Amino acid sequence: MAFIIKWLTSQPIRHKVLVFGLFMSIIPLLLISFYYFYHTKIDLENRIKEKQELILQNLSTEISLEFNLTSQHLQNLTLLSAPSRTDSEFYQLLQQNESIEEIVILDDRGNVEKRISRYKLNKPETHEEWYSKGMWQKLKKNNKAYSDVQINQLGQPVIKLAVPLYENGVTKGAGVVIQLQKIIGKIASFRQDQASYLYLLDSKGKVIAHQDSSKLWQKKSVILTDSVLGVKQQIPGLNWSLVMEEPKTSAFKPIYKMFNDGLIVMALFTIIVSLISIYAGFYFTKPILMLEKAMNKMKYSEEFSRLPVERNDEIGKLVESFNEMGIEIQAKKEIEEKMIQTDKLAALGLMASSFAHEVNNPLTVINIYAEDLLDRINGSDPTLDNHELDNYLQKITDNAGRCKKITRNLLNFSRKTNWTVSEIDIKEIIQNTITLVDYSLNKKNIKLTSHLGKIPVFPGDSLKLMQVLVNIINNSIDSIEKDGEIAISGVLKDNLFCLSITDTGEGISKENLPYIFDPFFTTKTLGKGTGLGLSVCYGIIQQFGGTIQLISNVGKGTTVEIMIPIHIRKKEGSSWGKTES
Hints:
Blueprint: H1 2-9, H2 13-79, H3 87-96, E1 100-106, E2 112-117, H4 135-141, E3 145-146, E4 150-151, E5 157-167, E6 170-179, H5 181-188, E7 197-201, E8 207-210, E9 228-235, E10 240-247, H6 248-251, H7 253-299, H8 314-350, H9 352-378, H10 386-414, E11 422-424, H11 426-443, E12 447-452, E13 458-460, H12 462-479, E14 485-493, E15 496-503, H13 533-543, E16 547-553, E17 557-565
Helix pairs in contact: 2-7, 7-8, 9-10, 9-11, 10-11, 11-12, 12-13
């Protein structure tokens, strides 16, 4: 969960709007869908079970009534006196109930005294026993007794029913053999639907009737699992069980279909919500992206232009506030640019004598070689050959090039420019800076060394960075009386350019360190500083997005540390991202 929150906080607003839209639409919809699916499933299951119970109750009642009616007819027969129990009474009972196969009168030992049968001879055999195992004991305890299901000579399932017969103080019995084909046919032909099935078990758990004839007479335990919906109904008196079962996959097929249809609808709904969320994301973030673009332009000192206010909501007010802020920042930048230009002019004024000497020396060399060459040409000096002439001209060309380099660097340094992004080669910037301060270094016999690692070319304003270096090195030169050292080092650490400038000057006291970046604060004597140098350096480094700090100890020297984040970009047709060796 923490990872998801962290990921969301790092995403753009339009992505958050999309995720929020999907979350607020899909999650409630899913919860509602699962809630109704769960309760609909339970309700359907209860309804199916209620329907199954009702069907089994009706069948159970119907079977019980049929056996009770047969039992009632048989009891009525036993109420007749012996002379009245004629064959016609027996045949009449057979005619009334087609399921009865035979009717018997039994003596007190359970032997057949009289038989009227549809398929057997009516004359009983000597000592012919009729009761099945346990029937006689049941009959002594109850008013009727049923046997287990048996198979007759025709291969049909039958059951025996016996009731007591009281005659002359002796307890005899009357019984019937009932065919079960009618009951079996009724159960086998019953159809609620294609998937459900109904079957009848006897007291021993054997299947008497089943819709699948291959399962007849198999022993079956009624175990209602989680995959089956089913109910069980006992048939009173017979100790039989009616069972109805239906697989849940079939029973719940309608709601599964409904749920699948719902998922399709939800997918379409999700697509619609996604499109709306994407539109809303772009609608709400478009002005924010415009603000971001305008802020980046301001960051790189491009000219500020007012953004159009196209809305009257909070974002419109934000754009208005941004326009007001941009005007104020633009005015502040103009003041800062004036300060930077003032600092340049002040630095040029302080270095004017240095520039004069730097330019005067090569001009003097040019003048000397030119006059000497002219005199020798006019005097037709025979010793002047082509080799010596080339030497004169090379000296003149070298010193003229030196003058050109000095004046070019001087013009570049003094030129007033806005922030201009170009490729910065830090080694080249340092060499150009040394050219501007070389005379001052030689005058005080100061040794300047530089140690740079592999620093790639990176984007930024090279002239602004050169101004920072000139200001810091000039401060170091001013702090050294004579015979000192200035060391420049630079390394790249995790896309952070770390530049350090250390001198062996007199240092700055702890009391003055908190104020060194304040405008117009200076520790130099009158006429040697304006107090803008380090303040301007601080502002320029901030424009680079970096930091500058100063560490100093009185009598030991000062170290200026500059850290600038650089973003190496590979661009077609550009050397950005290439490492300088």
